[in-house]
Amino acid sequence: MATIKLVADYNADPCTGCKLCDIVCPSGAIKMEARKPVIDEALCIGCGRCVDRCPEDIMWMIQRSEPLVTTVHPDEVDQEAVTALLEKAGIEAAMSVCVCTLTPGSEIAASIIKGAKNLEEVCAATGMRSGCGIYCVAPALRLLEAAGCDMTPPGQHRWYPSTLSLYDLSDEVCAKYPDAYIEEDRAVFDPEHKYGPLSKEIL
Question: 46 vs 6, 70, 115, CA distance in Å?
């Protein structure tokens, strides 16, 4: 859950239509129309990336009249579906996927089960990435991939479909690098053998 107190605003006249604000917006709140950005305040998570990247220095953040609370309650959806998705992705329900907003894995999974189909929709629903926006991307993408969502990166966006975990490494790799103690780590982090690789092709 995130409480968003700010929203993006800008001066339209000097805008050159470079689209950088649209490209860097993590929640899909900015769309270009007639070479000018249009900001959907209901989707803006107040991260300030558009302000940081605007080459004309014509964007800023303003105080919302009322804070926007963005959250998805995991108990609103099928609990078995949440558990199954988390286990397929190898992510604990209580793990803070977004450490800036303390958004747990269960909330990200619930947002996907409720219909979020990409990273932008997950961000808009939960408020994740309203802080640093870095470390939460990989686990959120893992959950989207585990749900079978389209993992084609949006044009000009820089993100990767997954990161390797203990559960993605093959038995051959584990045997080849015994000093990495992969099996021992698996025994500690996954003693019940709940998790598995997203793709059998990953070595």
Answer: 5, 11, 23
Is 4:46 a contact under the CB 8 Å cutoff? Answer: yes
d(CA 192, CA 169): 17
> What confidence tens digit (pLDDT) does each residue in 81-129 have?
999 999 999 899 998 999 999 999 999 999 999 999 999 999 999 999 9
- Looking at 59-145, which runs of residues are DSSP E strands? 59-70, 96-98, 103-104
Q: Is 144 inside any structural domain?
A: yes
CA 145 to each of CA 13, 133, 138: distance values in angstroms, whole numbers, following the listed order:
41, 19, 10
Phi/psi of residue 51, each to 5°?
Answer: -65, -45
CATH (domain of 36): 3.30.70.20
| Strand residues in 18-100 grouped as ranges (E) | 30-33, 36-39, 59-70, 96-98
Q: pTM of the prediction? A: 0.82
Q: Which domain holds residue 154?
A: 74-160
- Alpha-carbon distance of 77 to 88, in angstroms, equals 17
Answer yes or no: are the C-beta atoms of 88 and 146 closer than 8 Å.
Answer: yes
Alpha carbon of residue 104 to chain centroid: 11
Torsion sign over Cα 101, 106, 108, 114? negative
